[in-house]
C-alpha cells in the first residue's frame, strides 16, 4: 500500500511540474489516456466490455475517475498535496457513514470533518478555490466508489471494465481537451508522449495493480484500514518532491483524517 501510494503521488508530483505548460485538467486527461493505452496493451479486453450496459457502466466509471483526477489536479495546483488528499478523503468516508447506521462510521465522519475544518482554517486565506476543488474531488471520489461497485466482479472482468472505462473517458473528453489545449504549448511530441505514458504508469497502472495485490493478501477489511497511509504518503512526497512543508495545524488535521480512515474499517 505504501508503494502504491508512493507511485500515485510521485505521479501527481510529476503532474505539478507540467502545470506550467498545460492546465491541470489537460494533465489529468494525460493520466487517464496514458493509463488507457497501457491497460489496452496489457489486458486486451473483449469488445463486449465496451458496449451494452456493461460498456455504459464502464464509461460512467471512467468519467467519474477522470472528473476526480481533474478536480484533484486543480486542487494541488493551489494547495499542498498532503492537504488536498486529506480534504479529498471526506468523500469516501461520507459514503461509508451514509451507507451505515453504525456509531463507528458516523464517528469517523465527524473526525474527518473536524480534520478538514482544521486544515481549511490554515489554508483558507491562501486559496479558497483550492479547498473547493479538493472538496469537489472528494465528491467525485464518492461517485467513483458508488459507480465502481457496479463494475466489480471477477479479476478479469474488473480489469476489462477498468480498461474500457479509461478508454471511454479518454475518447469522450477529447473534444473538451481540444478546447482547453493552450495555444502556446511548446513541447516535443516524443517528450509529451513519454510524459503521458509516465503519468499513466505511475498514477494509474502501478497503483491499481498493487491495490489488487494488497486486496488479495490482506482482504477488504484490512485494505480499508491501510487507506489511512495515503494522506501521510502524500504529505511526505509533497514535502520531498515539491518542498510543500506543512504547518502544525495542517499536520493535526491530517492526523484526524488518518484516524477517521482507520476508524471506518468494515
UniProtKB/TrEMBL annotation:
<feature type="transmembrane region" description="Helical">
    <location>
        <begin position="159"/>
        <end position="183"/>
    </location>
</feature>
<feature type="transmembrane region" description="Helical">
    <location>
        <begin position="106"/>
        <end position="124"/>
    </location>
</feature>
<feature type="transmembrane region" description="Helical">
    <location>
        <begin position="79"/>
        <end position="99"/>
    </location>
</feature>
<feature type="transmembrane region" description="Helical">
    <location>
        <begin position="55"/>
        <end position="73"/>
    </location>
</feature>
<comment type="similarity">
    <text>Belongs to the EamA transporter family.</text>
</comment>
<dbReference type="InterPro" id="IPR037185">
    <property type="entry name" value="EmrE-like"/>
</dbReference>
<feature type="transmembrane region" description="Helical">
    <location>
        <begin position="189"/>
        <end position="208"/>
    </location>
</feature>
<dbReference type="InterPro" id="IPR000620">
    <property type="entry name" value="EamA_dom"/>
</dbReference>
<feature type="transmembrane region" description="Helical">
    <location>
        <begin position="220"/>
        <end position="239"/>
    </location>
</feature>
<dbReference type="GO" id="GO:0016020">
    <property type="term" value="C:membrane"/>
</dbReference>
<feature type="transmembrane region" description="Helical">
    <location>
        <begin position="25"/>
        <end position="43"/>
    </location>
</feature>
<keyword id="KW-1133">Transmembrane helix</keyword>
<feature type="transmembrane region" description="Helical">
    <location>
        <begin position="130"/>
        <end position="147"/>
    </location>
</feature>
<feature type="domain" description="EamA">
    <location>
        <begin position="129"/>
        <end position="263"/>
    </location>
</feature>
<keyword id="KW-0472">Membrane</keyword>
<dbReference type="Pfam" id="PF00892">
    <property type="entry name" value="EamA"/>
</dbReference>
<feature type="transmembrane region" description="Helical">
    <location>
        <begin position="245"/>
        <end position="263"/>
    </location>
</feature>
<keyword id="KW-0812">Transmembrane</keyword>
<protein>
    <submittedName>
        <fullName>EamA family transporter</fullName>
    </submittedName>
</protein>
